User: Fold these one by one.
Assistant:
Number 1:
Amino acid sequence: REAVVGYQRLLGDDADVTIATQNGLMIALQSQGKNQEALEWARRIVDSHRGRGGTDTPSFASNLGNLGETLEQLGYYEEALPRLREAYAILQRHYGEGSVHVHITRLNIAHVLILMHQHQEALALLNAEIPPSLEGYSVSTERARRLVLLGDCYADMGRADEARRYYDEGEAFVVANFKPDNVFAVFANGYIDWGRARLLLQEERYREALPKLRNLLERFRSAGSSNINYQATVLRLQMELAQTLVALHQAAEATELVKSSSEAIGKLAPTHPAYQNLQRLQAQLGAGARGGE
């Protein structure tokens, strides 16, 4: 914070070193779970960069991408999408298909589209494979993420067979390319298992889904990260576990999960799945309590 203030006084808001230091502060705030303050800084950084002109640059695209990702993780999908699209267009102009950052941003756009249930546009982006000429650790993570997102997209469309096929392909890719204790592999396998559990919920196979959701919640909690995406994942998992408990008439445990999560979920956008699930659960549990009076 002190460095940001110092550079602002000496060089102004739009100096390269000021913006870089603001980025560092934003990342530090995210790591501490101070999500709304991190979002405010992400907005300021983009505004500062726009203010000085020269926005057709990879560095501006990176700042836009950071803002878009932060908005997405908090559930502000309508705001996130145009930022990510703009970043993608800039990166494509500079790199074509020759940079992993182009593909990271394309997959981020697809993820937002899935969350907004705009499946056909998401599939159009996901069906574009990463060129074989690109190699490296980051490229491998994005190849795996693409397969998982394809599974998520088909699952959200209610096409379970295709979803399971892509989850299987994603799992096989992770096994072939990462060690089991690799951090990315641990989280990727967690998201794959979560996708499979959601398919069970769609099929109303609640008793099968329940132990899987409990296990997943424990796995994600044990990671102990305060990252925005991690926090939102844990909250969404807690709500899906609570929904499953309600379906199995275990209202007391569901009520405790809702109570323990409501304050944190209240800081997310109303469009976030965890927020929407919380609203539904509170209504269901409230109706159940009134019915038992």
Number 2:
Amino acid sequence: MAITVAAAKAAITTSLGGAPEVLDTVTVLNAAGRELVQSHPWNWLRRPAADLGVTADQAYTDLPSDFGRLVSLTGTTADQVTLVSPDEWSKFERDILDASETVACFFEYSDGDGPTTPRIYWNPTPSTTDADAYRITYLAGWAEKTADNDNLVLPVFLETLYWEFLFAVARGWDEQDVAGLQPRLAPVKAGPTFMAAVEQDTESNPVMGPILNGGARRRGVRRIEYEVP
């Protein structure tokens, strides 16, 4: 049975013996979800390959709204894609970049008072608009929920584990004098419920073999994954 926001809020209050004192229940239940999806590269979060376009004279492309973690990025033309860290960006721009490759680098930006949104920056800046210049495969992040009748986006086999994460997060923030967040999460991540969920996720959503073109590797630069809150 799907877990609703109302049920999660009630569970937090019951677990703490009252309303949380540090953060509101909606913040706590979504924080627990983020901790859960970031705790393992869950196959159930894997999204089908999607087109990623570029715009002429625009140095960046916004990533999908549910983006959580990169799996692969490939060009649909002959262009090669090298994924680099922000620290490596200037080195590539100065010393290594040539006309045969495109360098992609992740940054974050804040659109006013809204949430942080992930973007890919391209170097060189695209000279033409192309709606399907690249193909991206990624793992989705946590789907934030706020309304009481909203269902949390979780497969059934992860619901029990979510409850464990929820209680650990609620107590980790509200009872820090006893134990903080990470000491409470550590036994959950090492526990039998977590291990059983990983096994079920693997069996239900198998990934066979290496990812085709799972991020170009060139001149010794490693492929880097970025997690975005």
Number 3:
Amino acid sequence: LPVAWNPHFKSLPQVLLKILWYLNEPLLKFVGAGEYWIIPAAVTTLGIAYLIGRRRLDATSTAVWTILGSLLAALLSAQLVGGNFARLMVAEELARLGLMILFVGGAVVLLAARSRLAWTLTGLVVAVHLPILHVIGPHYLYWPAAFWGALNAVLLMLAYDQWRALRGYRQGIAEAVAINSCAEQPPPPAAESPPSLG
């Protein structure tokens, strides 16, 4: 059975820490464990993916350069902040990096999309955690998991919409460049009619 976990909180900061734990567990878990390199690696990976996505490249080149740039950014972050680039060779560390990329990417999509539905679900995620702040156990996480799932689905949809808009922006630029290059070319010379034989 689930049991009460410190039903009488000592202070308001303790309540706020529990709320933060529920809302951004990956961030607090990795920072609390001293895994600081994961945060700049995730941020730079997303930044590189965004910058490469804005370039006028075909889908294959975009995927290749995004993977290479993200891997290089993660390796540099692991070496400079984490102390060893070989951290990315450990499956658990790579899974932590993937989780942080999803977390930071979801926060970026939430802030950039300005979707009323996403912000409503974010408020519901916060609200559904309030009654379970003083207890611990998987029995209490059914409703929060349902709201987190709904919020994640909406964020995934918004990320896809933003990616399509970015692709449309790139296609619009390509069409404008093609139109400008056609306008700058001189018109072809008029064909002379062959002399008549009559």
Number 4:
Amino acid sequence: MAKLLAAIGALLAKTVVTAGLSLVPQPAIIIQDLPLTVASITTSTVAAAIDTTSLAATVISGPATTSLLSASAAFALVAAGGVSAGTGAVTPGLLPQVKFLSHKLTGTAKLSPASPALNAAPSPAPQVAATPMIPKATSAITPAPTAAAGKTVVTTASFLNATTLSLKEDRDGPYEAVLTTAPADGTPFIWGLGQSTIDGSGGVPSFSVSSTCNPIPNMPLVTDTDQNPTFSVRTTYTCTIGLAALSGSDQSVHTKQFTFATDPGQFIIIPPSSMDTVLNSSNNQGGFVFDNEDTEPVTVTGFAINVSYTALNTGQGPLVLRFLDPVSGAPLTDYHLENLALDPTTQYTHTGTDIQIPVSFTIPASSQKLLPIELLGVHTVSITGVNPAVTITLQTVSTNPSDAKTILGQAQISWSCEVPTTSYDPNATSGALASGLACQ
């Protein structure tokens, strides 16, 4: 009987696997102790138990303990007599107790046709349940990274499409056009109509620049540092800007049209360019210049001032500020300073803030006028180390129309003098008397 079983095992091993095999770690056959006759083990049974395509694990159930063995070990077990005599059942305890899956059969294995059963006697069919192998986790396939994308190619058309126009008001009244190009990537590029070319930098190509405007703007002189044209106030313009690339396949002129309206002009108040600032006891003259840069007249209806005076004697008579009409020179209003409060922070000084001066005078369009101011009734006090002084600072201006763009440009005037510390010497070359700054 032992020889017969060995022969059967050898025959099955030879019949089932005839080609070169290699061992790769994979799930093995799981066999439990079960009533299996030798006659029921055929090449068909083994072929059914071993899926040579997927080589998934196969479970052959039975009523006893479970053992694990590889496909090649199963054939060796049969050949070695691991089947009991008489019943042909697998003998418990002869199968190795394996806790890890064995090896997968790979290669060009060929299966011969199933052989007829050696014993025709029926035997209980084994319960076979296929357990699909859980696939081994694999990493997702990630495409190879591509090269970093470069900056967006700037063309003449895209450069113009990304360009906007804004207005900047100059100090002397008119407006300048400021062109800003914001590309899809990169820093906004600022340029002007005074440029004949745009030099490529920061990813911006080089372009030639041309422009036409209707009506024609104010063109600068050749000797002017700023060669940008200026646009008059309260005027609507239409400008067409042309760009042509200086290199590349497309060097044609691309254009974009802008239509815009300028705002009202500025109404600027500044001190006069020159005035006598030495304080004297007779008549001190000064004032403020009202410069109307608008194309419409502006009427001044009042203003607010701050006033301070130091080391003056108001006990001998009134100390008066007189405001005169810019056109006729006639008095508009007087304001008395002798009642100003003593300033607690500055010795010998009196101050007044937000003093309202009601007036009414008109500055024609595109013109300027001086508002004359006189300081009357000055009596200085000789205090060592303290110089008499009077300061007037313009705070606010009320106008008609009320939307005039009023700008106060250092609107402050002052008079002062120095108290002589020595007697008058016509030959002196230094000191208050020699410099002409002495109080008179």
